[in-house]
Every structure is written in structure tokens, then in C-alpha cells.
Amino acid sequence: MYKEHIILGKFSQEELDHIIHKSSEIRDVGEQIDYLSGQFLGIDYAESTLIGDRDTPEVFVINLQGFDCFTFIEYIEAMRLSGSFHDFKSNLKKVRYRSGTVDFMNRNHFFTDWREFNTDRISDVTEEVGYHKTRRIEKKLNDREDGTFFLPGIQPVQRDVLYIPSDETDDTVLVTLRTGDYTGIYSDLKGLDVSHVGIIIKDGVNVYLRHASSQTEFRKVIDQDFRKYMVDKPGIIVLRPTI
User: CA 146 to CA 166: how far, in whole Å?
Assistant: First the structure.
């Protein structure tokens, strides 16, 4: 049986119950994700909050005091599927782990794992968003250039990765993005699909990336102008909630 490690940070369980219940009454998925993720603006960036690796038993972690970019979207995705804090705990296991089984080997380590293993609620819409601008590349995830693994103990997996290059991410692409889209910043490194993830938030003609930023000047959950943020990035992968 796995252990649990729960840190709610500035929230009480009752407050989270209220937030999650209120979000469950929002029918538009994009608005729901906007509402939920907005509750965490300003929360500190923190890396390596999950516990478990090849040699360490996996612990089921909820840490709302600080999170990295990936645990941030995990918490939001699990909350949007829930009606209470109790539901959230259950859904987080399904979002973070294949078949909901808490184990390091079952953890969805890569952004495109969501496309593969959460297909009942997530769809890869990169090609739909990018049309003919979309590129396809075959990658062996987890396999470094020097032959070592990014994640020791996890077997590399061959995967087709679809992405839209940054220089092709123009207004015709941005207009097809939706609030609530989970967006990965494509990595051109061998063995990685993305280097960072966040959530698209649209406000009229303005497009923002809401994310847990590791940049020294921020180190917290912020909204950044998406066009400016993408200037020196290789491209994007777009996953969209379907329910």
C-alpha cells in the first residue's frame, strides 16, 4: 500500500471543497479551467515535489504549497473532473498514473503520455490547431543523446510527436487556440517531447500562458503574454480537454 503526503498550503480542505464544487457548476470547460487555475496565481514554483523513483517507493503527493509546471496542470486537470476534495484525490490518481495505480513505473512522466493514456478526457489537437503548419517527428522518449536515461528505470518509448513551430504560430494558429488548452513547449532535445507546460488563457485578442514559471524573476504561477513568451521557443504541442 502506498503512503500519502498532503500539503494544502494556504488552503483549508473546506476552502478547496468550495472551490472545486463551484467549478463543477461551470459548464464551459475553458471557463472552468480558467477559474480553477486562477485560484493558484502567485503560488510559489517548487521543483521535485513528487516522491518516488526507481529505488524509492512512490508516495501519493498533493502539494498545493508549491509546484512545477507539470504538477500544476495535473492538479487543475484533476480538479476540473471533480465535485469535491475527495473526488479530486481520486481523479488525481487517474490523471497522474496509468489506470490510477500509484507507482513510479505507472506515472505519466511525459506530456504526450496524456495523449496516450488519458484519451477518455484529453485529445491531441495540435494538427487541428496548426493545420498544414504542423510538423511530425519520431522521438524515443527518455533516451538521452549520450545513451543514458532522463528517468532511470523508465524504459524509452518510441512516439510520434506533433508540434507547431514557433515561427508558424501566427494569428491564424492563435485564433484556433482555446482557453483551457494544455500547451507544451516543444523540445528539440533528443528524448524529450516538451521542456515546459502551461494553460492557454484568452481574453479578447490577448493570449496568455498561465504556468508555474521557473524563471528567476518570477518563481511562481503567473500569466505571461503568449506571443512574447514563444519568441525564442521551438514550438508548441496542444492537448485539449474533451469532457
Answer: 27
d(CA 31, CA 178): 10
> Quick count: other Cβ atoms within 10 Å of Cβ 124?
20
Count Cβ atoms below 10 Å from residue 43 Cβ, excluding itself: 20
DSSP SS3 for 174: helix
pTM summary value: 0.96
Residue 85 and residue 158 share a domain? no
How many folded domains does the chain comprise?
2
Strand partners, 138: 160
Beta bridge pairs of residue 209: 200, 224
Residue 152 is part of which domain span? 120-241
Adjacency order of strands within the sheet including 56-63: 3-7, 56-63, 51-53
pLDDT tens for the chain, 243 residues long, are 899 999 999 999 999 999 999 999 999 999 999 999 999 999 999 999 999 999 999 999 999 999 999 999 999 999 999 999 999 999 999 999 999 999 999 999 999 999 999 989 999 999 999 999 999 999 999 999 998 999 999 999 999 999 999 999 999 999 999 999 999 999 999 999 999 999 999 999 999 999 999 999 999 999 999 999 999 999 999 999 998
Please give the Cα distance from 92 to 107 (Å, whole number). Answer: 11
Q: Is residue 115 assigned to a domain?
A: no
